[in-house]
Structure formats: structure tokens, C-alpha cells
């Protein structure tokens, strides 16, 4: 499912410093996983805003290349 075109689209986007997304190919859809601990450790509100905008741009870029995209987070308070 994760094609070369999708890979190029993903890599063409600038990621905010100190942040990253994991791309997981699930055959019929793609999961983008963000680590909550990394997101929350971004130093400024502006960096957090940039990270959210980046996640949205990546999701859209993959969808524009034919993917079904699920955006998830890893971490958080366990119940």
C-alpha cells in the first residue's frame, strides 16, 4: 500500500525539529503514529502548532496519493 509516490510525498514535507511520525503500512491503510511524550516535550506552543500542522499535511499528502490514513498517538495516561 505504501507506494514510492507516497514515500516521496512524505519525505518532501519539513518536519518540526524534535518531532517525528512513524509510518506503518497495514496493507489496506496506513497508520501515522505520533508519540505523545515527544509532542508534549516540544518547548513552545509554536512548535506544537507546527507539529499538528505537519501531521495534517502528511495525512493529506498520503491521501492525495491514494492512501487511507489513520492518525494515532502512542502514550498518554493509562487507565
How does this structure look, described?
This protein is of the alpha+beta class. The chain is 42% helix and 20% strand. It contains three helices and three strands, in the order αββααβ. It has helices at 4-11, 36-40, 45-64; strands at 22-25, 30-35, 69-74. A three-stranded mixed sheet has the order 1-2-3. Strand 1 and strand 2 (30-35) form a beta hairpin. The radius of gyration is 13 Å and the shape is globular. The mean pLDDT is 93.
In spatial order, strands of the major sheet run: 1-2-3
Spell out the helices and strands N to C. HEEHHE
Number of helices: 3
Instruction: Name the average pLDDT.
Output: 93
Task: Tell me the overall shape.
Answer: globular
Throw out a few tags for this protein:
42% helix, alpha+beta, 3 helices, 79 residues, 3-stranded mixed sheet, 20% strand, single chain
Task: Summarize it.
The protein is built from 3 helices and 3 strands.
Fold topology:
Elements: H1 4-11, E1 22-25, E2 30-35, H2 36-40, H3 45-64, E3 69-74
Parallel strand pairs: 2-3
Antiparallel strand pairs: 1-2
